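re: ur question from earlier - yeah i can do the single chain one, its not a big deal. heres the input i used so u can compare w yours
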Amino acid sequence: MRLEITRRADLATRALLTLGEARGRLKAAELAARVGASPGFLAQAMTPLVSRGWVRSDPGPTGGYTLVTDLDALSVLEVIEAVEGPTDTAGCVLEDRPCSRGGHCALHIPWSRARTLLLQELSDTTLAGVAGRGPR
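and the output i got, formated as tokens:
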């Protein structure tokens, strides 16, 4: 996967931030309403967060989602990769093919440098920082 912020990654980030503000369990329908998504689309974004152990999902009529990790401990890059999978470092920016060692495209070096800086920034930025409650 190329590095991109999809609607699902955006939704996962907003759901984590909303759960952090709630400081307790939110029913799926309430969380979906707060982040402006359908409950079905919310579930797609929440599944990887639950799998990673960042969010607890309690089923049933009294259930919902609870944040079980500190937003200081999660980087924006971790959330993106949890939802979308690992970022691809071998793809060519100009063509849909791997960049080969012998035949790099014209933008290979500047793109690699810019991508490295972007990934570092996303890795250094915590969700608490995005929420304005912590480092970066």
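The chain has a mean pLDDT of 87. not sure if urs matches, ping me
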